[in-house]
Amino acid sequence: MIFGRLLPLCLVLGTSTLAQAGTSSGDRALEDLGRALFFDTRLSANGNLSCASCHDPAQGFVDPGTNRLGGAVSLGDDGRSLGDRNAPSVTYAAFTPDFHRDNEGQIVGGLFWDGRAATLADQAMGPPLNPGEMGMPDMEAVRQRLLENPDYVVRIGELFGPETLDDAGRTYRAMAESIAAFERTDTVSPFDAKYDRYLRGEYQFTEQEELGRTLFFSQQFTNCNRCHQLETSPMAARETFTNYRYHNIGVPVNEKVRAANGMEQDYVDPGLLNNPNLVDWEARGRYKVPSLRNVAVTGPYMHNGVFNDLETVIRFYNHYNSRSEKSQINPETGRHWREPEVAENVSLTDLEHGPALDERRIEALVAFLETLTDKRYEPLLEARKTAR
Question: Helices 359-370 and 207-217, interaxial angle, to 10°?
């Protein structure tokens, strides 16, 4: 779960010693411990919430959408607190690079929408202590919960050393490293979508899907791959469909969320500027480019869940290039697209690259994006198609 105004995640606990200890004790054992912790509701104050509650493996590792906001944001362990940002999918998150600046000076990587957790394990340290999420008061309280489970005591002792359990900070880091190990498994990131099978010669795209693929990777007809392609080749295996950079694409406020979660009326989500490592005002309103893996089954969309349908997202991008009246209307509201929450640094150079899309090309892009759905989630995709 991702909430709007969190205290910066403390990154002062060292990672190398524990990570090395876990790896040397056997990857499979560490992954199995992480899997158990991922599903354990006892790591929340009232025992109502686990990692899987907001990152449900049966639903593409996103919020299952059972709250009154349809999963646009998530409900906290206290049964009242609602976030301000959408919980992104855990699938393929393990491929996110550590937070850094690249050779071009661009900010890249990190976890959460604003990259404030430098690594996957750092991200796992956030929700348990967030009062609006899992609500545990401190690391010592988490340690006590872990000590209540004899199996955890044995496994943590074997993987990280028995002295780990004597210290709250080390125990907490061990928990996070274990969860991160589970999130790195093929269970979470299998690379078995129709797109992957196509690359291996095991699936033939339909005519519509092939048109969508051509458009997506085109340098001339769309702007998709300016941000949603990592590898230089459009035929590269294990493509994650994000360059992990940060952009402001002009997303409007999710008014329903703001009305429900009690945020101040004039609050503006600072985006990347929420990252404690940054003070550059140009970071305001920027969010990490998400992976498009499983995008067709992991809505609602954007950092605040403001759009419900994948086709709406494509039409939102298209309104920057098309001047037709229809393209200026949000199909979910029947009204003009609302103004960006942060308007001063929208990435217009990237957004306005390429011509307008007609209906056939919009539908083809959606069809191609659907081929990025992991095999186990294809029934979810069919169910969504049927429900349209």
Answer: 90
Q: Which CATH number fits domain 194-387: 1.10.630.10, 3.40.50.300, 3.90.550.10, 1.10.760.10?
A: 1.10.760.10
> What one-character DSSP code corresponds to residue 231?
S
Tokens (6 digits) for 26: 């056997």
Instruction: Report whether 146 contacts 153 (CB < 8 A).
Output: yes
CA distance 211 to 110: 33
Q: State how far the Cα of 172 lies from the Cα of 22, in Å rounded to an integer.
A: 14
- Whole-prediction pTM value? 0.92
Q: What is the pLDDT of residues 29-78, one digit of tens each?
A: 999 999 999 999 999 999 999 999 999 999 999 999 999 899 999 999 99
Residue 350, number of CB atoms within 10 A of its CB: 15
HSE, side-chain direction, 13 A CA sphere, residue 256? 15
The CATH number for 16-108+115-183, chosen from 3.30.310.260, 3.30.70.360, 2.40.70.10, 1.10.760.10, is: 1.10.760.10
Kind plus residue range of the DSSP H or E element containing 155: helix 150-160
